[in-house]
Amino acid sequence: MKQHPQTLGEFIISNQKDFEYSSGELTRLLNCIRLAAKVVNHEIRQAGLVDITGTIGNVNVQGEEQKKLDVFANNVFINALTNRNIVCGIVSEENEDFITISGANNAHRNKYVVVMDPLDGSSNIDVGVSVGTVFGIYRRVSPEGTPVTKEDFIQAGNLQVAAGYVIYGTSTILVYTTGNGVNGFTLNPAIGTYYLSHPNIRIPRRGHVYSINEGNYVHFPQGVKDYIKYCQREEDDRPYTSRYIGSMVSDIHRNLLQGGIYIYPKSNEREDGKLRLVYECNPVAFIVEQAGGVATDGHRRILDIKPTDIHQRVPLFAGSSEMVKEAMDFLK
Ligand code: P6P
Fold first, then answer.
1. Which of 34, 60, 138, 268 is 20 to 30 A from 196 (CA-CA)?
2. How many Å lie between the centroid of ligand 1 and the Cα of residue 316?
3. Does the pLDDT value for residue 49 go beyond 70?
4. Residue 80 per-residue DSSP state
5. Does residue 77 surpass a pLDDT of 80?
6. What digits encode the pLDDT tens for the residues 17-27?
7. How many C-beta atoms lie closer than 10 Å to residue 48's C-beta?
8. Percent of the chain at pLDDT exceeding 90
9. With a 6 A CB cut-off, is 213 part of the ligand 1 pocket?
10. Would residue 203 count as lying in a domain?
11. Does residue 85 sit within a domain?
């Protein structure tokens, strides 16, 4: 009988032993995220049919207009994590302060905290373009049994115990790492099961795609401008192809599978770039590095940057190792 591909549940159980902190808690945490992602996926797939697109008339802490699906996704993940009593705290792009899971069911004894962007690229929702969820998991540093503190959420990215993203694209794929490589699982919506579809993802050392919003060209540092012109020059293996979806998770995922570089640099308008270190760049950097790639802010390894604020922004250069290193040479 043909062996079906491994399900996510089977994979988690069979690999739990590889996980340094092999407590059932992390397994339950990953299971919670996969459930929440199924609920968000279901809602996204019917956006436009039900009154779930558009804005809700207010802006989030980033000053960005909150979309109905942003808020929906945020609530789904927060409720799932809270109701299953798995974490002691959460940071979300949609919430100004960190969320302390109340001591009701002794949540203060839980060992992990989650940082997340529940729906990245949400401006794409109303126009049918793919979006994603990004998450990172840390062990708390504050004493067990006490309420979480800001310190639990501003740990360096190299202390993440797990990180992942969900891409809601032509298919829904959950990609995550616990520090032992990167694996992707595609959701079969008919039965609500994720199957191992992308085992041991390795990013090519070089690709032919560069992803950057060239509409901001005039505002970029000279080194970034020079790198863009380098990508476009007719020589060696260039010109590269420009692919920019406006959804970081989608650009990162494509580049992870095929090779390429994603850049959101600083500019005259955004001194620290746009992407958030804690719940966008760090999880992506962990995954990219675990797949053999490189992720920096143009000068420093993303995972080594010590955050000072839960919403701080950093420039991001992430993808194929040789391409990121080449881009960084232009910034020197
Ligand atoms: P811009 C979406 O808002 C996001 O955070 C990333 O997913 C995406 O790559 C980027 O911002 C798009 O920003 O300024 O190029 O429209």
1. 138
2. 12
3. no
4. H
5. yes
6. 766 665 677 88
7. 14
8. 76
9. yes
10. no
11. yes
